[in-house]
């Protein structure tokens, strides 16, 4: 026991780039299994709690009461992750937790009404990731080339940096969600079951995967006009999906121990990367025209760039973080998915007027056949104090979507700031976001807003 406690103490006093912006965090919660420290178990725990005010889509009600605006709270994420480096070549990882629990929904299946199993209570704990991997070629064994192979429920989903983003260190408050294009449809919260290969060749990093998507079985609405056919998720006995992402890291090289891509290093690294990725699944969606079923491939492509650069005099600790990406999505004719993070609203059956096509609450056309342009940037403001009480990082993001299902394209923005108490480990994020509201597929959308305060801790 004394030896174990000594290993824990040494680990906690170490330094690591996991301490994104925090001078005190060290190596985190890590248990060394040998004196050299190359065999260990690492634990990561985190919670993201939201306070939010939402302008509701027309035709919304909450708790049976019609409303056009509502305050609410909820656990956006509450999770635990553990990975063990059993040997220098073999690693296993488990990641579990809950998401999107509010005062009225997000509880365990079947929870409803009042009481111990009422609305929003006892939400279901589930595994996000569970895989093992083996380093076939470690760095230095074959020149500049390295290779690891793995299998399980995993996050190596290709396509873009944002598709494999870490949820611990976003620049903005959260993901734009469209970068998880299969979210809880043919994946399990952005993961699929399958195999992956990852590694580096000099400054080029690569990730490829072969997966069996989760089965989908939505019934397409029959159309008599082929131009009005709408593709839905229905892959029957799914074909294997293929995905990949490659990027060139011009400046500092990033760790690829885990798949999770950092959103903001807070000046602890000097990074500039260019990347490109894809996802393909044959016969992933279906349409019905005059009662004839037609299958369609899901083919997704993205190119992106990421930069995180310290600015000016080092004593000021300033840094700029930026990301830009272009996404081309082909899901089949007129495909659209309307999503709303922690949506608390239901449809008001007595509403008179033009309802939002997306539905009630904060639902919006998030993913669809067409093109998406996204950009975000933030500036870590200067501080000369060795241990400042707080660091401030204002940011802004812009999204432009041009979906086949709508005649008019849409644009939306996010603006806010991170208030770092201890880097990403203890921070408060404030953000105001807009979203498009379509009441007709042929007319320009109006806009609604949402203000969110997030309280984040992670160990």
Q: Layout of helices and strands, plus pairs?
A:
Layout: H1 2-13, E1 29-32, E2 40-55, E3 60-62, E4 65-66, E5 69-85, E6 90-102, E7 126-142, E8 145-154, E9 192-201, E10 204-212, E11 222-223, E12 232-233, E13 241-249, E14 271-289, E15 292-311, E16 318-330, E17 336-339, E18 346-347, E19 364-368, E20 370-380, E21 391-403, E22 410-422, E23 426-437, E24 446-458
Parallel strand pairs: 11-14
Antiparallel strand pairs: 1-2, 2-5, 2-24, 3-4, 3-18, 5-6, 6-7, 7-8, 8-9, 9-10, 10-13, 12-14, 13-14, 14-15, 15-16, 16-20, 17-19, 20-21, 21-22, 22-23, 23-24
Organism: Chryseobacterium camelliae
Keywords: Signal
Signal peptide: 1-21
Strand order of the largest sheet: 2-5-6-7-8-9-10-13-14-15-16-20-21-22-23-24
- The share of residues in helices is under 10%
Number of strands: 24
Mean pLDDT: 93
The whole-angstrom Rg is: 23 Å
Query: Sheet with the most strands?
Result: 16 strands, antiparallel, barrel
Do you know the CATH architecture? Beta Barrel
Principal-axes shape call = globular
Protein name: Porin
Keywords: Signal
Organism: Chryseobacterium camelliae
Signal peptide: 1-21
Structure keywords:
459 residues; Porin; 3-stranded antiparallel beta sheet; 16-stranded antiparallel beta barrel
Written description of the protein model:
The chain has 459 residues and is mainly beta. It has a single domain, classed as Porin (Beta Barrel), CATH 2.40.160.10. The chain is 3% helix and 52% strand. The protein has one helix and 24 strands. It has one helix at 2-13, and strands at 29-32, 40-55, 60-62, 65-66, 69-85, 90-102, 126-142, 145-154, 192-201, 204-212, 222-223, 232-233, 241-249, 271-289, 292-311, 318-330, 336-339, 346-347, 364-368, 370-380, 391-403, 410-422, 426-437, 446-458. The strands form three sheets. Strands 2-5-6-7-8-9-10-13-14-15-16-20-21-22-23-24 form a 16-stranded antiparallel beta barrel. It has a three-stranded antiparallel sheet with strand order 4-3-18, with no helix packed on it. A hairpin with a 4-residue loop joins strand 5 (69-85) and strand 6 (90-102). The longest helix is centred in the N-terminal third of the chain and has 12 residues, at 2-13. It is globular, with a radius of gyration of 23 Å.
